[in-house]
Amino acid sequence: MKILPLVTLISLFSCSSPPPLKKVDSVNINKFMGRWYVIANIPTFIEEGAHNAVETYTWNEKENRIDVLFEFNQDSFEGKKKKLPQKAFIFDKQTNSEWRIQMFWPLKFPYYIIDLAEDYSYTVIGLPSRKYLWIMARTPSLDEKTYEEIVSRVKKLDYDITLIKKVPQKW
């Protein structure tokens, strides 16, 4: 009878975390830089109610990092404009697909590029915990077929797709 509690305990811990999150094999940083429209996300508390959300990446040669500017209108297209500057540091320099994002010093959070169109027209950013997710594109919208294919791939990565919310975009 002592073995049953041990087996139960082992099975609980072995099922408690998903497998490691796979990143894309390679990212050309120069091609990745620029403006990305947030099409959908599993939002952080800051992003709740965001409209016209855009993330802009700029390579900072002097600091050897990426300057990130997240901008959006709060709660409506006419809502207050919010700007959140951040810093990103390339963590996996072989693939450029794993970064550390710093919203405020000294904390840095993992940031994985988990999907990327061959032509860099869309990307998906995830966290190893799978708590947050961002689907972004170079244009304010994605065709529905492409969007559904992305969500299908995300589901296979153990994300809870019921938490994904489309971000209103009107330009």
| Mean pLDDT across residues | 89
Unreliable stretches covering 5 or more consecutive residues: 1-15
Please report the total strand number as a whole number: 9
Identify the CATH class. Mainly Beta
CATH superfamily: Calycin beta-barrel core domain
CATH architecture group name: Beta Barrel
Elements, N to C (H/E): HHEEEEEEEEHE
**Main sheet: strand order:** 1-2-3-4-5-6-7-8
CATH topology annotation: Lipocalin
Please summarize the sheet with the most strands. 8 strands, antiparallel, barrel
Number of domains: 1
Binned, the helix content reads 10-25%
Distance N terminus to C terminus? 65 Å
Strand content: 35-45%
Rg result: 18 Å
Number of helices: 3
Structural classification: alpha+beta
**3D shape:** globular
Describe this structure in words.
The structure is a single chain. This protein is an alpha+beta fold and 171 residues long. The chain has one domain: Lipocalin. 17% of the residues lie in helices and 40% in strands. The protein is built from 3 helices and 9 strands; from the N terminus they run H-H-E-E-E-E-E-E-E-E-H-E. The protein has helices at 3-14, 29-32, 144-156, and strands at 34-42, 50-60, 65-74, 81-90, 98-104, 107-116, 122-126, 133-137, 165-166. Strands 1-2-3-4-5-6-7-8 form an 8-stranded antiparallel beta barrel. Strand 1 and strand 2 form a beta hairpin. It is globular, with a radius of gyration of 18 Å. The chain starts with a helix and ends in a 5-residue tail after the last strand.
